[in-house]
Amino acid sequence: METTIELFQKTFYNDKIRLQLTCYILLYCLVLNSGICMAQTQNGKNFQQGKPISSDLFGIFFEDINYAADGGLYAELIQNRSFEYSLSDRTDWNPFTAWELIKDGYGIGTISVDTSTPIQPGNPHYVTLNVEKGGDGVGLRNSGFDGIPLKAGENYNFSVFARQVSGISAPLEVKLVSKNGKVYCNAFIPGLSKEWKNYTVIMKSDSTVSDATLELVTRNPGILNLDMISLFPVKTFHNRRNGMREDLGKVIADLKPKFVRFPGGCLVHGDGLNNLYRWKNTIGPVEQRIEQSDIWGYHQSLGLGFFEYFQFCEDIGAKPLPVVAAAVSCQNSGGSWRVGGTGQRGIPLTEMNQYINDVLDLIEYANGPVTSAWGSKRAESGHPASFHLEYIGIGNEDKQTPEFRERFKLIYDAVKAKYPKITVIGTVGPSPNGEDFDMGWKFANELNIPVVDEHYYMNPGWFMNNRKRYDTYNRSGSKVYIGEYASQGNTWMNAISEAAFMTSVERNGDIVQLASYAPLLAKEGHTQWDPDLIYFNNTSVSPSVNYYVQQIFSVNQGDTFYDHIVTYQNSGNVLSENDSTMAVSCVKDSKTGDIILKLVNIGKKKTSVNINLTRFGKINPNAVCTILSAAVDTKNTLSNPHNIYPITTDYRISKIFVYESIPLSVSIIRIKTKMN
Asked: Which residues pair with 582 in a beta bridge?
């Protein structure tokens, strides 16, 4: 067969024409080759080698909302253990909320709340029990948080601060009982001193129940003072004293988050200046911590404080990301949308030096040597080593007022000057656009803030239509932390829209440094905000289908993004964000060498795609594939917690293969490049 050039040589015998033709052919080849090279270049870089992205991309957001802390993750089983509940928490609450007086067998006595000689001034309330006639027992009963759950054969630590004010010192009996008086376990404290003292006993339950109550009684006349009445399961997450509920701790750890943001959220800047979250009130012995109202309409014992947050991060292998108020209260303080609300208020400038020092002390508490003032306090709590703090957030959804910006800059400049290696995260309001968003970004760019915190709670369509949101962000300006996001529901369509959006977050992982779904936890019967990632009651945990989307993305994170890996089978066209049925991402984990494909089919038909892995060199054909799917728009519940969950199977691949994505599904294919 004659070549194209030979045919042209016969037809165009003129030397000049042959020379021109040869030049045209060479020029065509050069253009073609240039096009290939251009196709391999993205943002001025050869995409053959991929684009570095954040290795801390997917984490979690914890806020004490929906009873996430007391009655939730914090394993304390006694509600209002220190009698600090008040009308400022809820209009129907008082120091005896969750408590009642017991008078058995003709016993006679009274209880009252006193403040004259507390254990410590910051925790002023305690109970005086006046027993006139002991009978079969006079004392207190606590109902816990919707009852006290017990497990047969498990041990429980009981403790109480107590003293004998008058009368003969007599044993105190502590017991866990049913509503009709059946005793599951009990123990005795032999006698009380005349000074405040902490008494502890361990009890083993003989039954598994969800609604026990605690009783603390004496049978001798006299006057007793009681405070900090506490009950903890011995078996907590990682067996920590004053620790976390085991099952909730595990389900959070199973997300394998890269970071944990705490303690909020709106909780941080609180309901007015007197309600700002002050981290120094949350460390040290629990009886010395200063409790306060929760902006979400209940109470914070602060038993789950900054030491416990840092320790929990370490236990689950996540980086800590504490957030402090920017020295202003929430703009919605006091219900400012109603008449009489106080709105945003700033700490007086005369008090800013002290507040700034508190922020700097927090960094020293986390990272400072044991010879430093605040590093020594960390060591006193049992952790001499640094917590390796890298990030700190300043502010949360704050309105961009002159008062906010002035105070933020004072804090930011001080942190930057003393701790230049700490990454400061700013805030750009509560919405994905609008005045606060625009002003916040302008302010961030003026100050060169390293990262800013964007929030959005939008419908699934918004997430589907905003997969290009970060494609055009300025790569040389502030980076992004998507601190709070959710698609306004817990059904499969909500979750799959979030999955599609998350592929675009990975694609833009050079500008988006961190992302966390919010809120994390919600207790049945005590939910102020929906949707949430994990639902629970006293005995059960139900990860939402959104949880499983977050999990399969989080456990399959990478640090390099690769484009142009997946194409349509029939056309060979590169998948783009203009396509309405598929969203894809390909990343590599440099530590393991694994290639991770994420394929989200948001359509109602099967879609076949070509996957070309030739650029990665050697690959192991024995991969694993995890699929999360649902044929109908359903959800997980506490009664049916496994309605939708991921299934992982072995999957055989080659360097070029076809994958058939089933309708309404998220598929994760993990491929090894290191041979065993």
From this structure: 601
pTM here is: 0.91
Average pLDDT of 21-36?
39
Among 291, 397, 484, 506, the active-site one is 397
Tell me the H-state helices in 69-161.
none
Phi, psi at residue 360, to the nearest 5°?
Answer: -65, -35
Kindly state the tokens that stand for 92: 């129907």
Give the separation between CA 67 and CA 145, rounded to whole angstroms.
10
Residue range 103-129, pLDDT digits in tens: 999 999 999 999 999 999 999 999 999
Instruction: Return the closest-CA partner of residue 310 out of 410, 389, 255.
Output: 389
Q: How far from the centroid of its chain's Cα atoms is residue 446's Cα?
A: 30
- Give residues with Cβ within 8 angstroms of 75, minimum separation 6: 232, 233, 236, 237, 243, 244, 245, 246
Go through the domains of the chain in sequence order and give each one's CATH number. Answer: 4-33 (no CATH), 99-233 (2.60.120.260), 560-671 (2.60.40.1180)
Distance CA 23, CA 35 (A): 18
**Cβ neighbours of residue 20 under 8 Å, at least 6 residues apart?**
none
Provide DSSP, 192-242.
--SS-EEEEEEEE-SS-EEEEEEEEEE-S-EEEEEEEEEEEES--GGG-TT
190 within 8 A of 174, measured Cβ to Cβ: no
**397 catalytically annotated:** yes
Amino acid at residue number 373: A
Give the integer Cα–Cα distance in Å for 655 and 675: 14
Please say whether the beta carbons of 261 and 516 come within 8 A.
yes
Cis peptide bond N-terminal to 519, omega within 30: yes
Three-state DSSP state, 391:
strand
> Measured between alpha carbons, how far is 670 from 587 in angstroms, rounded to an integer?
10
Report residue 409 as tokens: 């800059």
Torsional class of 565: left (φ above 0), alpha (ψ -120 to 50), beta (otherwise): alpha
How far, in Å, CA of 515 to CA of 547, rounded?
14
CA distance 53 to 499: 18
Q: Which whole-number Å values give the CA distances from 241 to 33, 77, 252, 381, in the listed order?
A: 66, 13, 19, 11
Secondary structure class of 309 (helix, strand, coil): helix
b/e 545-555 (16+ beta carbons within 10 angstroms → b): bbbbbbbbbbb
Q: Are strands 607-612 and 656-661 parallel, antiparallel or unpaired?
A: antiparallel
Distances in Å between the Cα of 499 and the Cα atoms of 89, 218, 548, 553, 601 are 38, 58, 10, 8, 10
| Residue 463 burial (C-beta neighbours within 10 Å; 0-12, 13-18, 19+) | buried
Q: Is the pLDDT confidence value at 358 over 70? A: yes
DSSP string, 592-656: T--EEEEEEE-SSS-EEEEEE-GGG-S--SEEEEEEEE-SSS----SSSTTSS--EEEEEE--SE
Q: Average pLDDT in the 409-428 region? A: 98
Instruction: Indicate the residue type of 125.
Output: H
Mean pLDDT (the chain) is 91
| Alpha helices in 282-372, H assignment, sequence order | 306-316, 352-367
